[in-house]
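quick one before i forget lol
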Amino acid sequence: MSDQQQQTIDPSTLSFERALKELEGIVDRLERGDVELEESITIYERGEALRNRCDALLKSAEMKIEKIKAGRDGQANGTEPLDG
């Protein structure tokens, strides 16, 4: 998929892995410094949207994580919400 095609996909529909991969590509391009100013602004804004998507997905995943409770014998005997 070309960069142009990627930029037309709404970040809110992307999986964490896909959003992160695209974000890493944007960071690489910006770090190389061979992108013209106008395009730099455009891809930076896209990067912000992708970062926000990744943050939202991570927060959602954190809320679903549970820790395993162990009994006195050391055996697992259930789960409880992970402390925030």
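fyi The first helix runs from residue 3 to 7.
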